Amino acid sequence: MIEFKNVSKVYPNGTYGLKDVSVKIEQGEFVFVLGSSGAGKSTFLKLIMHEETPTSGEITVNDFKVSSMKQKEVPLLRRSMGIVFQDFRLIPNMNVYDNVAFALRVTGTPTRELRKRVPFVLDLVGLVDKAKNMPTELSGGEQQRVALARALVNKPSLIIADEPTGNIDPELSMEIVDMLDSINKVGTTILMVTHEHELIRRYENRIITIENGTILSDRPDWRSV
Ligand code: ADP
Ligand code: ADP
Fold it and tell me: Could you tell me the CA-to-CA distances from 211 to 38, 121, 215 in Å, in that order?
C-alpha cells in the first residue's frame, strides 16, 4: 500500500525534510503519524502525494512507483487517495451536497451514479439533514465531516488526513477520529497526521512518531498484538 525504502528529502536550501526513512503501511491499516512542528510530517505526506519528489530512495503507493513516476500519471495516483485538510477547504458558495458532488463531477461520474453516492456518503458522516446547508452554516466539526464525505465519495483505497482535528473543538475531535475509525473498518487505509498526543493516546492504533526527519518510534497496533 505505502512503502518507503531508504527515502531522504533534502530541500534546495540544504534542509533535511526526511533522512533515510524506511517504513511499510499495509492495506487496511489505520495509522497515526505523530510529530512536533518541523519534524517532517508534511514532507512525508507530500512525498506520498507526489507534491515533492525524494532526493534518494524508493516510494511505492497503491501500486504506483511514486519515486519514478511520470507527471502525467500523477492524477491517477491522486484519484486513488482521498485527502482531508486541517482547514477543510470546502467551496464556500456551494452547499454541502454540491461540495461532495463536485468531487465526482470532476472525475466525470454519471449523474445517476452521483445521486446514489452523494447521499450514501452524507449518511455515513451523519449529515443527510444538512445537505442543503452552506459551509458557513455549519460548525467546524460538521465542515470537517463534509470534507471527509468529499474525500470518500470517489471510493479511494487510502484516506490521508492532515491534522484533521487542528481547527476543531477538542470535544468534537474524537468524533472525527471515531468516524475515520468506522471508515477504516470497511477496508479503507487511513493515515492521520497529528501533533496531538493527548487525542490519540486514547486509541490503540499504530503510531509512527517522526522527529528530526527520522522515525523515532513505530508502536504497533495494540489490537493486533
Ligand atoms: P512538519 O510537517 O512535521 O511540521 P515539515 O515536513 O514541514 O515538518 O518540515 C520538516 C523540515 O523540513 C523542517 O526543518 C522544515 O523547516 C523543512 N522544510 C519543509 N519544507 C521546506 C521547504 N520547502 N524548503 C526548505 N525547508 C523545508
Ligand atoms: P449496494 O449494495 O446496493 O450497492 P450500498 O449501500 O453498498 O448499496 O451502496 C449504495 C451506493 O453507494 C452504491 O451505488 C455504492 O456503489 C455506493 N457506495 C458504496 N460505498 C461508497 C463509498 N465509499 N463512496 C461512495 N459511494 C459508495
Answer: 8, 35, 6
